[in-house]
Inverse folding.
């Protein structure tokens, strides 16, 4: 296995595993904070894919620049998401996502 | 086994363990630490992939800002940030079923990648050592990609303002008691307690008084 770490498929598999873990965490957990962290996991795995493909196609740097912008957007998303968590906590005194049921009743 | 092989193996195992810790631990602080471990692992993988600039940005933005923001919010919420014990968990079957479904999809995809009869694993070619350096990315960000770069700054400003506006909530309105407001004292009831039993003169009484005075 001397090619370990120098083959694109390994990075794609790892990124897929990370994305799956994030997806499962988002679906299964009820804690809004953990769900936001799961979203971060998924964004990170996509970044890993972009950078890995950019390592394969070295003609330009568009993959890495795209990952840079994804990081910027993810930072903005976390700031707004945590503000919404705080507002939700003020409303419900809870951070469980199934407490957000005002539209059901 | 070269150094790169070991480096990749360690970094990927660290990233996977961190991800598992993020989604599986009961305490949100442990989840945040798991996220931090994953981010460090992915930054190490960025170094393997000739993305030095992104590795640094990943550590600064994610480990330095995002995880710290998560920990701040967890501290702000205190013990309520944990899993709500005693609350009724809705849609348990749907949640676990959806998670199992996506795990199955991922397993099928992994099977397709590895077990395909004509699987060809393509090793990376040679690369310019300047690929992914700060200088190379900076040239792009301030050259051909300057418009999205500036738009990203606008997005961050809007996000900061929006986060403050949402997290602060409605400004606190002080409820004044009836007697504290001069308007209320003037128009809603007698000024002195001794006048409580004496109704204000009606319009006809006022007119009669005025006529009598004249």
């Amino acid at each position: 296995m001397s090619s370990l770490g120098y083959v694109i498929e390994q990075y794609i598999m790892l990124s897929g595993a990370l994305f799956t873990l994030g997806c499962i965490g988002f679906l299964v957990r009820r804690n809004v904070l953990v769900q936001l962290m799961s979203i971060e996991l998924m964004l990170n795995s996509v970044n890993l894919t972009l950078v890995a493909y950019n390592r394969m196609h070295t003609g330009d740097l568009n993959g890495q620049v795209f990952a840079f912008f994804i990081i910027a957007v993810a930072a903005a998303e976390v700031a707004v998401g945590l503000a919404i968590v705080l507002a939700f906590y003020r409303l419900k005194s809870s951070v469980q996502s199934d407490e957000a049921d005002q539209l059901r009743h | 086994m070269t150094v790169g092989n070991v480096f990749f193996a360690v970094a990927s195992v660290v990233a996977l363990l961190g991800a598992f810790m993020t989604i599986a631990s009961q305490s949100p602080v442990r989840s945040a630490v798991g996220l931090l471990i994953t981010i460090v692992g992915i930054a190490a993988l960025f170094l393997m992939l000739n993305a030095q600039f992104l590795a640094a940005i990943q550590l600064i933005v994610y480990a330095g800002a995002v995880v710290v923001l998560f920990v701040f919010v967890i501290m702000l919420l205190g013990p309520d940030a944990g899993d709500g014990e005693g609350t009724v968990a809705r849609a348990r079957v749907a949640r676990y079923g959806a998670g199992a479904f996506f795990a199955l999809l991922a397993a099928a995809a992994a099977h397709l990648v590895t077990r395909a009869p004509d699987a060809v694993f393509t090793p990376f070619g040679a690369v310019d050592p300047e690929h992914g350096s700060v200088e190379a990315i900076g040239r792009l960000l301030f050259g051909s990609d300057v418009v999205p770069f500036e738009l990203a700054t606008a997005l961050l400003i809007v996000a900061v303002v929006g986060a403050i506006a949402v997290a602060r909530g409605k400004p606190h309105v002080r409820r004044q008691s009836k007697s504290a407001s001069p308007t209320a004292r003037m128009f809603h009831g007698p000024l002195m307690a001794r006048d409580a039993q004496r109704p204000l003169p009606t319009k006809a009484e006022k007119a009669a008084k005025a006529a009598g005075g004249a």
